[in-house]
Specification:
The chain is mainly α and about 425 residues long. Helix content is about 75%, strand content about 5%.
Length: about 425
C-alpha cells in the first residue's frame, strides 16, 4: 500500500513539473555591463538547485574534515572503554573458573585502564561501579588465595569508592560489598566482625534473605542462640528453607537455648522466649522437662510442659517415634515421687487404652511402685521387662523387679532379676 502511494505521489509531481515547465515562457535577464544575458526561467531554477546541492555537499565535506580529530579521539576512548569492560568480564570469568591469580590480575588491569580513561578526561557514567566491582573481584580472588592483606586493602578501597556521592544513585553497590565482607569474616571464623558488617546495612537490606542467612551463621558461630533463633524464624517466614529444614533448624536452636540455661530461673526465661509452636515440639518440650529435672527445679511445671506431648502420644500413638516415647517416659519417671493424682490417672488410662505398649507398662509399673502398690507394679514391670526395646528402661525394669523381690525376701527371684538387669547392654 505504501509503495502504491509513493508511485501516485511521484506521478503527481511529474505531472505538475511537466505542466509548469512545458509551457513556461518566462525569461530572466541579467545585465552585466557591457553584457546582457537572457536565461529561461527553467534553466535559472535548475542552476539555483544545482548551486544549492553543491554548496550543501561542500559544507558537509568541510564539517567531516574538521571533525576527523574529534572522531579519532572518540574512537580511541571507545577502544579503551571496551578494554576496561573486557578486562572486568575476564576477571569474572577467571574467578568462576577457579583461576584466582588470573582473575586478580585482570581486575587490576581493569583498574589501570579505568584510571587511564579518567586521566584523558573521559567521563564514563558507570566509572564508579566499575571501580567498585574491580576492587571486589580482586578482593574475592585474594580471599581465595588466602592473601588477607591484599583482600582487606581492596575491600577498603571498594568501600571508599561506594561511599562517594555517586553511590547514592545505586546503594546496592555498597550493600553488595558489605555482604561480601560479612561472608569473608564468616570464612575467617570471625563472627563478631560479620555481625558488625551486617549491622552497617540499612534496615531493608538487613531483612533480605542473603543477609538473614549470613546473620544466622554468624550468630550460631558466636553462640548467640536467641538471636540465631529469631533469625531462623524470619527465614522460615520468608520461605528460605523447606518446611522440614526450617522446622529442624528452629527445633535445634530451641533445644540449644534450653541447654544453655544453668539454673531454673534461666530455664524459665528461655522457655518464655519460645513461641507456642516451638513449645509444642516434642523434642523441645521433653528436653526442657529433662533440663528442669537436672536443675532440680519445679517438676510440676516440667510435667505441664510435657502435657501437650503426652496428649499427642495418647491420641496419635504413631505420631511419635520410639526414641521420643522413651525420652518422654524417662522425663515423667524422674518426677514420679511428686506426681499428683491427675497425672496418675492419665498414666493409668493411657496404659489401659494401649495395654501392649511396653513403655506405658513400664511407666505405670514404676508409678505403682512409688505408690507402694507392689502386686500391680510387679505385674506391669514383668510384662514390660519382657517387651522393652530400650536397654536403659529394660535394665531399670529388672532392677525394680529385683528390689520388689528383695522386699518380699524372695532371694531366688531377686537374684534372677539382678542377673537379667546385669545382662542388659548399656544404651
Amino acid at each position: 500500500m505504501r509503495a502504491a502511494l509513493w508511485f501516485l505521489a511521484l506521478f503527481a509531481i511529474a505531472a505538475a513539473v511537466a505542466l509548469f515547465a512545458g509551457n513556461n515562457q518566462g525569461t530572466i535577464t541579467v545585465f552585466w555591463p557591457p553584457w546582457r544575458v537572457d536565461l529561461s526561467l527553467n534553466l535559472t531554477l535548475l542552476i539555483l538547485l544545482a548551486a544549492f546541492v553543491l554548496m550543501h555537499v561542500a559544507l558537509r565535506a568541510l564539517a567531516a574534515l574538521f571533525s576527523l580529530p574529534r572522531q579519532a579521539r572518540q574512537w580511541r576512548l571507545q577502544q579503551k572503554e571496551r578494554s576496561v569492560h573486557a578486562a572486568l568480564l575476564d576477571a569474572l570469568v577467571q574467578l568462576m573458573a577457579g583461576r584466582f591469580a588470573r582473575s586478580r590480575k585482570a581486575a587490576q588491569a581493569a583498574l589501570v585502564q579505568e584510571r587511564t580513561l579518567s586521566a584523558l578526561d573521559a567521563q564514563l557514567p558507570q566509572a564508579q561501579q566499575i571501580r567498585v566491582l574491580a576492587h571486589l573481584l580482586a578482593a574475592e580472588s585474594a580471599q581465595a588465595l588466602q592473601d588477607r592483606p591484599a583482600r582487606d586493602a581492596h575491600l577498603q578501597q571498594a568501600l571508599n569508592e561506594s561511599a562517594e556521592r555517586a553511590a547514592l544513585a545505586s546503594p546496592e553497590t555498597r550493600e553488595g560489598v558489605q555482604l561480601r565482607a560479612a561472608r569473608w569474616a564468616l570464612d575467617d571464623r570471625d563472627a563478631p566482625a560479620a555481625l558488625a558488617r551486617l549491622e552497617e546495612l540499612p534496615q531493608g537490606a538487613q531483612r533480605r534473605t542473603l543477609a538473614l542467612r549470613l546473620r544466622l551463621k554468624a550468630a550460631r558461630q558466636d553462640r548467640r542462640t536467641l538471636e540465631a533463633l529469631e533469625t531462623a524464624r524470619l527465614l522460615s517466614k520468608h520461605r528460605a528453607f523447606s518446611d522440614a529444614a526450617a522446622q529442624s533448624i528452629v527445633r535445634g536452636l530451641a533445644t540449644e537455648l534450653v541447654t544453655s540455661a544453668h539454673d531454673s530461673a534461666q530455664l524459665l526465661r528461655a522457655w518464655g522466649e519460645l513461641e507456642p509452636v516451638e513449645r509444642e515440639m516434642p523434642e523441645v518440650a521433653i528436653h526442657a522437662a529433662q533440663r528442669m529435672v537436672a536443675l532440680r527445679g519445679d517438676l510440676t511445671l516440667a510435667r505441664a510442659w510435657l502435657l501437650p506431648v503426652w496428649d499427642r502420644m495418647v491420641e496419635q500413638p504413631r505420631s511419635l517415634g520410639e526414641s521420643l516415647r522413651v525420652r518422654l517416659v524417662r522425663a515423667l519417671e524422674a518426677g514420679l515421687d511428686s506426681v499428683d493424682a491427675e497425672w496418675l490417672a492419665r498414666i493409668e488410662a493411657a496404659q489401659r487404652n494401649d495395654p501392649r505398649d511396653a513403655n506405658l507398662q513400664y511407666l505405670a509399673g514404676m508409678a505403682c511402685m512409688k505408690r507402694q502398690l507392689w502386686g500391680k507394679a510387679q505385674q506391669l514391670l514383668t510384662h514390660a521387662g519382657l517387651a522393652l526395646q530400650d536397654p536403659g528402661l529394660h535394665r531399670r525394669a529388672w532392677q525394680a523387679l529385683a528390689q520388689l523381690a528383695e522386699a518380699r525376701d524372695d532371694t531366688d527371684q531377686a537374684s534372677a532379676a539382678w542377673k537379667r538387669a546385669a545382662q542388659t547392654e548399656n544404651p
